[in-house]
Design a protein that fits this description.
seven-stranded mixed beta sheet, alpha+beta, six-stranded mixed beta sheet, 60s Ribosomal Protein L30, Chain: A, globular
């Protein structure tokens, strides 16, 4: 689908004498909304995690202001921690103070996801992604906020035009009283089940979920059992159109949490086209037992959104290719993503958010070299260290692309 509007990209590098932050701001303007995507890697030489968090939340209002947004327009945050057990409470305190100073408190705070996936740049205590949404002109955007569903489990419902978008973050399988089942399968089954009443409260069920992000504390040990748990849940909930998804290793909070996930669901389907994404370079993941789609295309009145699932160096038969060869694995991964986008008449130029998972942070210079060779410098890419779903896979990448539509 051709578009007369393209995302306005602004690369923001901030230096104040105490260190340098890396980051980008992307603004996408549609007939209904202005959406602001911020990626930031705060760095202060020899600075503490608290100083880095303060630096980020000191910069965020200015970054948003340049795009015409305010702190109260922030809907979603994802925070990648170097050491979540040590730094979570400090980060939360600074975050709450920053939003309080902007008049945002309690359940009005953005929905947020917190995971321990160390930034690949060792100077960083955090890597952060932020999404803000505000109306364009006389259009209306309504953000519904709710009390925590469970400790640290947050949700938002965003009304844009006649459609409601549900975001549910940090869903885990801990007991209602905070107890921690020691068995992974019990946690995984409870985690999926916990989403059902939340969806039902908004008049929908799990088949309305279009994207999930699944985190496992020990992916090498538990990924097989996770797939069994998810498959059984999807069969019970009659999920036949498999959501786009990422399944990745992440340390979780509170300690003892073995798995968690985030989800996005579209609550109103009238006037919306939803289509599973395919490419000849990849088979379907459910052919080898993983219940997710390679990507999901969502055509709304004002824009098309492409959710590219976690994608790696896998071929059209589902086999890992280029074992032990990082450069070739990165190239094949990028080919797969490029072809998923191309099948929807899209390119990397439409991408607004990327997460690259590297099995070892030492892979970063090689990845960046290839990334630049592909001409992708300037895209908002968070590089984090994380184990991938197969031991032989060295990297994985997920992305979101937005194509604004021509005004009617």
């Amino acid at each position: 689908m051709a578009s007369l509007l393209t995302p306005r990209r602004e690369c923001q590098c901030c230096g104040d004498g105490n260190g340098v932050c890396s980051g980008e701001v992307i603004v996408v303007t549609t007939a209904q909304t202005i959406e602001v995507f911020v990626r930031c890697g705060p760095m202060i030489e020899e600075g503490t995690a608290g100083e880095q968090a303060s630096k980020f939340y000191g910069c965020l209002p200015r970054l948003l202001h340049r795009a015409g947004a305010r702190m109260s327009d922030v809907v979603l945050e994802r925070v990648f921690f170097r050491d979540i057990a040590r730094d979570f409470e400090t980060f939360q305190r600074i975050r709450r103070e920053a939003y309080r100073d902007a008049g945002v408190t309690g359940e009005e705070l953005p929905a947020a996801s917190y995971i321990n996936q160390p930034p690949c740049r060792s100077e960083q205590a955090f890597e952060l992604q932020v999404q803000a949404i505000l109306p364009n002109g006389s259009s209306r955007v309504i953000v519904e906020s709710f009390p925590e569903v469970a400790p640290h489990t947050t949700k938002k419902v965003v009304h844009i035009g006649g459609h409601r978008h549900l975001y549910l973050m940090n869903i885990n399988g801990l007991g209602p009283n905070g107890s921690v089942p020691a068995d992974f399968r019990k946690q995984s089954d409870a985690m999926f089940a916990r989403a059902v009443p939340v969806l039902a409260a908004h008049g929908t069920a799990f088949p309305a979920v279009l994207r999930t992000w699944c985190y496992l504390d020990d992916i090498d040990r538990d990924y097989y059992e996770f797939n069994l748990s998810r498959n059984a849940f999807f069969a019970r909930e009659q999920v036949t159109r498999l959501p786009a998804s990422t399944g990745i290793r992440a340390g979780l909070y509170p300690p003892g949490t073995l798995c968690s996930f985030d989800l996005y669901a579209l609550l109103d389907r009238e006037g919306v086209e939803v289509e599973v994404m395919h490419t000849p370079t990849l088979n379907e993941a459910d052919e080898y037992g993983s219940a997710f789609s390679r990507g999901m295309k969502v055509v709304l009145p004002e824009k098309t959104v492409l959710y590219v699932s976690g994608t790696a160096s896998v071929d059209e038969k589902g086999a890992t290719v280029h074992v032990d060869d990082l450069r070739k694995q990165v190239d094949r991964m990028l080919v797969n993503v490029r072809e998923l986008l191309a099948a929807q008449q899209s390119t990397f130029a439409d991408v607004v958010q990327v997460i690259t998972y590297l099995k070892q942070r030492s892979f970063l210079p090689t990845f960046v070299d290839i990334w630049r060779t592909w001409g992708l410098d300037g895209l908002p890419n968070s590089f984090v260290e994380a184990g991938v779903c197969r031991p032989e896979l060295l990297c994985e990448l997920e992305a979101i692309a937005i194509i604004p539509h021509e005004r009617p």
